[in-house]
Amino acid sequence: MEDNIREKVKGLDSEKAIEILTDHLATCPDDEEALTLRGIKYWSAGRHSLAIADYLAAIRINPESRAREALKAANEILDYRNKDLYNP
To answer: Is 28 in contact with 43 (CB distance < 8 Å)?
Structure first.
């Protein structure tokens, strides 16, 4: 991903960063780093299904992408179950 794109989204709120990354991906759809970063921003905005879709797209482009770790963390969060809440 272009460093200037990364710098543009650094420190921005999720929605603005998503907008910039989406514009970037319109011209560079195979930028796995941009997909990963947009997935992270989607996740922080509570849009989990879109985040997972971006992680999977990044992994299809580069199986060694850091999106693998992001996807693993997302699945761990979604799979978490506190048994004490069910049986106090």
So the answer is: no
